[in-house]
Write a structure and sequence with these properties.
Elements: H1 2-5, E1 10-11, H2 12-18, H3 24-36, E2 40-45, E3 48-53, H4 55-70, H5 78-85
Antiparallel strand pairs: 1-3, 2-3
Helix pairs in contact: 2-3
């Protein structure tokens, strides 16, 4: 979800609502874990904390998983490779 919304990000409450009403506190807990791992960042906007994906870190994670998963057998990752080939190049940062 955070990848799709890009740099605009989403609040924990909005994410919880989109996920069918999961408790915002539970969503916040998991978002904090992602932030501590360096995959997500947060910023304050008024009373809300907005979370957004850190795209270079996510890219590094995907690259690591594909290297580890494929182990030289690229057919294992064919679906993922096909998806990456179709990348539309949406902006991953605010456009002025």
């Amino acid at each position: 979800m955070l990848v799709v919304v890009g740099a605009d990000g989403r609040s924990a409450g909005a994410i919880a609502e989109a996920l069918g009403g999961a408790p915002a506190s539970r969503i916040s807990f998991h978002l904090n874990q992602l932030e501590e791992s360096g995959l997500v960042e947060s910023r304050r906007e008024g009373r809300s904390i907005i979370y957004s994906a850190i795209f270079p870190a996510l890219s590094d994670l995907v690259a690591f998983l594909m290297r580890d998963c494929c182990e030289g057998h690229c057919a294992v990752c064919d679906k993922a490779i096909a998806l990456f080939a179709k990348c539309t190049g949406r902006p991953t940062h605010p456009v002025d």
